[in-house]
């Protein structure tokens, strides 16, 4: 746990619980008239929705978790940590700028778009500098956490991009956009926890040897004479 503060581990683990728990409780409060397969999460937090208060609190807590995790994720590159933290702030903004009961909201749409984009690109930004910065670390026997490797982060980023295209396609044709949105947001919320867990498994750095000063050659020779 020396590489990550305990509160960063807790925040990354609580984030998926707030997301899934928030939309689940809000859906129950909304009643059978809400279809989670074809309706988005934002509908549950819309003005006048029965579960708006619950989901708003859950989303604010989720955003705070992302900000806390970004602050404590010290092994990640700074641009990725900033993107993750800003993604958390976007989640908070999305919760505080709900859509109306009927129609859309330009502000809400922009905040959601920015939040999705930040949560999709932060893995690559977190790994880009990390991989190069750890070249010397590998030579000293310290491995880069696997979830911060550039190749893994690229796969995750492309997968999230594919999920966003899936969601937009379902939204356009009025299909299973609720399912697509839940899959995408769940993956984006779980990935910080995966990165944190990979950092906990990171091999600890080698302890530097303590310098004891120049050796006295005459003392060494005297010691060898005593032995002989």
Envelope shape: globular
Quote the beta fraction. Answer: under 5%
Count of alpha/pi helices = 8
**Overall mean pLDDT:** 83
How many domains make up the 3D coordinates?
Answer: 1
The succession of helices and strands, N to C, reads HHHHHHHH
**C-alpha termini separation:** 50 Å
Q: Strand tally, please? A: 0
What does this structure look like?
The relative contact order is 0.14. α4 packs antiparallel against α6 and α4 packs parallel to α7. About 4% of the residues have low confidence. Helices cover 68% and strands 0% of the residues. It has one domain. It has eight helices and no strands. The protein is mainly alpha-helical and 228 residues long.
Give a brief rundown of this model.
With 228 residues, this protein is mostly helical. The chain is built from 8 helices and no strands.
Which SSEs are present, and which pair or pack?
Blueprint: H1 6-30, H2 52-72, H3 78-96, H4 106-133, H5 135-139, H6 150-172, H7 177-200, H8 217-227
Pick out its properties.
8 helices; 68% helix; 228 residues; mainly alpha
